[in-house]
Amino acid sequence: MITETDDIAAMLDAAAARWPNTGGDRKQLLLRLLQEGSAAVDEGERDRQRDHRESVRHHAGMLSDIYDPVELSRLREDWPQ
To answer: Is residue 54 one of the residues assigned to a domain?
Structure first.
Protein backbone atom coordinates (compact mmCIF):
# COMPACT_ATOMS: atom_id res chain seq x y z
CA MET A 1 0.00 0.00 0.00
CA ILE A 2 1.25 3.48 -0.85
CA THR A 3 0.10 6.61 0.92
CA GLU A 4 -0.89 9.31 -1.52
CA THR A 5 1.19 12.21 -0.29
CA ASP A 6 1.10 15.59 -2.03
CA ASP A 7 4.15 14.64 -4.12
CA ILE A 8 2.66 11.31 -5.18
CA ALA A 9 -0.69 12.96 -5.92
CA ALA A 10 1.08 15.48 -8.18
CA MET A 11 2.86 12.66 -10.01
CA LEU A 12 -0.38 10.75 -10.47
CA ASP A 13 -2.13 13.89 -11.72
CA ALA A 14 0.65 14.42 -14.27
CA ALA A 15 0.38 10.76 -15.29
CA ALA A 16 -3.40 11.13 -15.70
CA ALA A 17 -2.81 14.01 -18.09
CA ARG A 18 -0.25 11.95 -20.03
CA TRP A 19 -2.39 8.80 -20.16
CA PRO A 20 -6.02 9.91 -20.25
CA ASN A 21 -7.13 6.45 -21.42
CA THR A 22 -6.72 5.22 -17.82
CA GLY A 23 -9.76 7.24 -16.83
CA GLY A 24 -7.80 8.65 -13.90
CA ASP A 25 -7.65 5.25 -12.18
CA ARG A 26 -4.91 5.85 -9.59
CA LYS A 27 -3.88 2.19 -9.43
CA GLN A 28 -3.47 1.97 -13.23
CA LEU A 29 -1.56 5.24 -13.25
CA LEU A 30 0.77 4.03 -10.52
CA LEU A 31 1.43 0.78 -12.37
CA ARG A 32 2.07 2.70 -15.59
CA LEU A 33 4.51 5.01 -13.80
CA LEU A 34 6.32 1.98 -12.37
CA GLN A 35 6.55 0.39 -15.82
CA GLU A 36 7.84 3.62 -17.37
CA GLY A 37 10.32 4.08 -14.54
CA SER A 38 11.59 0.54 -14.92
CA ALA A 39 12.01 1.03 -18.66
CA ALA A 40 13.94 4.26 -18.03
CA VAL A 41 16.25 2.51 -15.58
CA ASP A 42 16.85 -0.31 -18.08
CA GLU A 43 17.59 2.18 -20.85
CA GLY A 44 19.95 4.09 -18.58
CA GLU A 45 21.83 0.89 -17.76
CA ARG A 46 22.11 0.00 -21.46
CA ASP A 47 23.42 3.50 -22.17
CA ARG A 48 25.93 3.22 -19.33
CA GLN A 49 27.19 -0.13 -20.61
CA ARG A 50 27.43 1.20 -24.17
CA ASP A 51 29.38 4.26 -23.00
CA HIS A 52 31.72 2.02 -21.00
CA ARG A 53 32.40 -0.22 -24.01
CA GLU A 54 33.03 2.83 -26.21
CA SER A 55 35.44 4.23 -23.63
CA VAL A 56 37.33 0.95 -23.39
CA ARG A 57 37.57 0.74 -27.19
CA HIS A 58 38.71 4.35 -27.41
CA HIS A 59 41.46 3.88 -24.82
CA ALA A 60 42.52 0.37 -25.84
CA GLY A 61 46.17 0.26 -26.80
CA MET A 62 46.91 3.87 -25.83
CA LEU A 63 49.65 2.77 -23.45
CA SER A 64 50.88 -0.26 -25.35
CA ASP A 65 54.22 1.34 -26.22
CA ILE A 66 54.96 2.72 -22.75
CA TYR A 67 57.12 -0.23 -21.65
CA ASP A 68 60.17 -1.53 -23.41
CA PRO A 69 59.45 -5.14 -24.53
CA VAL A 70 62.17 -6.53 -22.21
CA GLU A 71 60.79 -4.59 -19.25
CA LEU A 72 57.26 -5.71 -20.07
CA SER A 73 58.36 -9.36 -20.13
CA ARG A 74 60.05 -8.89 -16.76
CA LEU A 75 56.89 -7.34 -15.29
CA ARG A 76 54.75 -10.18 -16.63
CA GLU A 77 56.92 -12.73 -14.81
CA ASP A 78 55.37 -11.49 -11.55
CA TRP A 79 51.81 -11.94 -12.75
CA PRO A 80 49.93 -14.97 -11.49
CA GLN A 81 49.13 -17.59 -14.09
So the answer is: yes
**pLDDT tens digit string along 8-65?**
999 999 999 999 999 999 999 999 999 999 999 999 999 999 999 999 999 999 988 8
Coil, strand, or helix at residue 24?
coil
Does this model's pTM top 0.70? My answer is no
Which of 59, 46, 8, 55 is closest to 38 using CA atoms? 46
Whether residue 31 is contained in a domain is answered as yes
Q: Is residue 1 part of a domain?
A: no
Buried b (16+ CB within 10 A) or exposed e, 42-62: eeeeeeeeeeeeeeeeeeeee
